[in-house]
């Protein structure tokens, strides 16, 4: 479903990714875990088409990403550190705009329902510039899901969310999993990855150093495995 072959990314003289090879089946939820600077977010940016690799190739749905960028991008939802939202638009206006950007005609009833689901019903017509970081992240969740993507990319999605918003996000992830969407999540939270993911990949220095199914592990053993392979100096753990 997603096939990554020999991906390298170099910026200046710095190697960000080194010979990344990865196959992800449809419906899998993958957790990318590693220290800051390991290349996790770069992998998501390249899969999403926001960044081009220095070498290597990516196939999604059997098609080369570089040959069918728009067709493939329209099937991807990306929840990143950047919201991409327009601060002078309201949540309703933002979601309608992004739906059209993806080439979808979405009923206003669906848009309003999604806004309610992320807990922003009372702010539906307020400009985003007045929102807190947590509120923006909630709306960003809705933006990533407005077109019912087949692939969902999540870059540290639980950052800046309160407990209620974390529950909302996890509920959406569970819904996506049930309908067969493929999810790739960058996270520093091993416990969240354990509960949400089918596979976990450890990254370090731009390479994948381990790849294993969660079903065969216990959470404490995953912690031990991480610290043994990656190191114990990560403050996030």
From TrEMBL:
Keywords annotated in UniProt: ATP-binding, Cytochrome c-type biogenesis, Nucleotide-binding, Transport
Superkingdom, taxonomy of origin: Bacteria
Annotated protein name in UniProt: Heme ABC exporter ATP-binding protein CcmA
Gene3D superfamilies, A to Z: P-loop containing nucleotide triphosphate hydrolases
A single BP term in Gene Ontology: cytochrome complex assembly
SUPFAM superfamilies named in the record: P-loop containing nucleoside triphosphate hydrolases (SSF52540)
ABC transporter domain mapped to chain residues: 2-230
Family membership noted in the UniProt record: Belongs to the ABC transporter superfamily.
SMART domains linked to this entry: AAA
GO MF annotations, alphabetized: ATP binding; ATP hydrolysis activity; transmembrane transporter activity
Species of origin: Calidifontibacillus erzurumensis
């Amino acid at each position: 479903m997603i096939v990554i072959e020999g991906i390298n990314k170099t910026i200046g003289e710095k190697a960000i990714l080194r010979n990344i090879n990865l196959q992800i089946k449809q419906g899998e939820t993958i957790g990318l875990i590693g220290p800051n600077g390991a290349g996790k977010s770069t992998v998501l940016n390249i899969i999403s088409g926001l960044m081009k690799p220095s070498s290597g190739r990516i196939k999604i749905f059997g098609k080369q990403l570089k040959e069918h960028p728009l067709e493939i991008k329209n099937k991807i939802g990306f929840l990143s550190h950047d919201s991409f939202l327009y601060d002078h638009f309201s949540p309703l206006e933002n979601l309608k705009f992004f739906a059209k950007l993806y080439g979808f005609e979405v009923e206003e009833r669906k848009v309003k329902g999604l806004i309610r689901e992320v807990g922003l019903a009372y702010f539906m017509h307020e400009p985003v510039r007045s929102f807190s970081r947590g509120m923006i992240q909630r709306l960003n969740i809705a933006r990533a899901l407005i077109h019912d993507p087949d692939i969902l990319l999540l870059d540290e999605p639980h950052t800046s969310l309160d407990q209620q918003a974390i529950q909302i996000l996890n509920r959406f992830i569970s819904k996506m999993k049930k309908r067969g969407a493929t999810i790739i999540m960058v996270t520093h939270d091993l416990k969240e990855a354990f509960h949400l993911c089918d596979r976990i990949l450890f990254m370090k220095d731009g390479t994948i150093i381990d790849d294993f199914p969660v079903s065969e592990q216990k959470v404490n053993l995953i912690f031990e495995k991480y610290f043994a392979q990656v190191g114990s100096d990560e403050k996030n753990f």
